[in-house]
Specification:
The structure is a single chain. The protein is α/β, with parallel strands linked by helices. It folds into two domains: about 160 residues, Response regulator (Rossmann fold), CATH 3.40.50.2300; about 130 residues, 3-Layer(aba) Sandwich (Rossmann fold), CATH 3.40.50.2300. About 40% of the residues lie in helices and about 20% in strands. The chain has an eight-stranded mixed beta sheet, sandwiched between helices. Helix 2 links the parallel strand 1 and strand 2. Helix 2 packs across helix 11, helix 5 packs across helix 6 and helix 8 packs parallel to helix 9. The chain is globular and about 60 Å long. The termini are far apart. About 10% of the residues have low confidence.
Length: about 350
């Protein structure tokens, strides 16, 4: 080869190199997988974007996000997760336990960051300190806070001697919720009765059983499934006589019941029952009391793990973070509508009182 031809080829290669590097340096792509719909989860999305901004990322500028919403249909999550894997996203952000489980089933190589889950009890990770595999994220401490919710509710409904616990048996943390509630009930010297509802057809039956139980309080296990199954509980809300024996309600953590939080609120409010829920959004929607981790803050902090993974961190070596912000919210407006007196000791401990 002549020297002049060689120099032309070399020059062409050098000219093409920056373009090739630019193609290889395309912006990272996140997959955002959620079991519900965008509207009600706007605060969590906004908090996640805030967390990304704090680490230097702006969607559309140096980061792309592929959103996938299951609209409350769990059966869609597997296909949505598989689609994100097929698009070779760099990280999957799984919002809630159902999405995290679907993402884990879809890939063992793409890093997954979950927000607001009970990861060990739900079988997502091996341990909090060393999760192993390709998952890490933020714990919600949902089941661990059940005793505190029961304590607050018992203080409000001091005459309650029997508490019924409604759980979704399909929730992997159901047994943990039951065990924690049983221990708290023994400490308060009240009887605990377990009711189970894992499908729409079982909800009516479980609520109707309360008539026979003459329970003084009810713990409803929270679960996202309820968020997309509102109609059934709206119908139940028109039949408050089903709760003629109950005097208080404690809404415990879980996925199915979260999806129907507004109907649960309508149901217990129509029955003039005290109730405590696991997330502040319930109190914002008209529920009496709520105590739990600040979910939007969990999403904001999850963005920090996304940043570390994009910079090369191994999710297996990133310990599960615990919540750092907790909300105890009392809806005084609802209390007045229900003609309930909130003890000053409870109001003094509330982080926020809605008037």
């Amino acid at each position: 080869m002549k020297r002049r031809e060689f120099m032309l080829i070399l020059g062409g290669a050098m000219t093409a190199a920056p373009s090739l590097r630019a193609q290889q340096k395309a912006m990272p792509v996140l997959g955002y997988l959620h079991y519900a719909s965008p509207g009600p989860n706007a605060p969590n999305v906004a908090a996640f974007h805030q967390g990304l901004s704090e680490t230097g990322y702006v969607e559309g500028q140096n980061l792309a996000i592929e959103y996938r919403w299951a609209e409350g249909r769990y059966d869609r999550l597997t296909a949505l997760a598989t689609d994100l894997v097929g698009r070779k996203v760099d990280v999957i952000v799984a919002a809630g336990p159902p999405a995290a489980r679907a993402a884990k089933s879809a890939t063992s190589t793409i890093p997954i960051v979950f927000a607001s889950a009970d990861p060990v009890g739900e079988g997502l990770v091996a341990s909090l300190a060393r999760p192993g595999g390709n998952l890490t994220g933020i714990s919600a401490l949902s089941t661990e806070l059940t005793p505190k919710r029961l304590e607050l509710l018992s203080e409000l409904a001091s005459q309650a001697r029997m508490i019924a616990l409604l759980v979704n048996p399909n929730n992997p943390t159901a047994e943990s919720i039951i065990g924690d509630a049983q221990g708290a009930a023994r400490a308060k010297m009240v009887q605990l009765h377990i009711l189970k509802a894992g499908a729409e057809s079982e909800i009516d039956t479980a609520f109707a059983t309360l008539v026979q139980l003459q329970a003084g309080a009810l713990i409803v296990g929270a679960d996202p499934f309820f968020f997309s199954r509102r109609g059934q509980l709206v119908e139940l809300a028109a039949r408050p006589a089903a709760f003629s024996g109950a005097s208080a309600v404690l809404v415990a953590p879980g996925a199915m019941f979260w999806n129907h939080r507004r109907e649960i609120i309508a149901l217990v409010n129509a029955a003039r029952l005290p109730v405590i829920y696991p997330e502040r959004e319930y109190a914002d929607d008209g529920g009496l009391m709520a105590y739990g981790a600040n979910v939007p803050d969990n999403f904001r902090r999850a963005a920090g793990y996304v940043d570390r993974i994009l910079k090369g961190a191994n999710p297996a070596e990133l310990p599960i973070q615990q919540p750092t912000r907790f909300d105890f919210v009392v809806n005084l407006k609802t209390a007045k509508e229900l003609d309930l007196r909130i003890p000053p000791t409870i109001l003094a401990r509330a982080d926020e009182v809605i008037e």
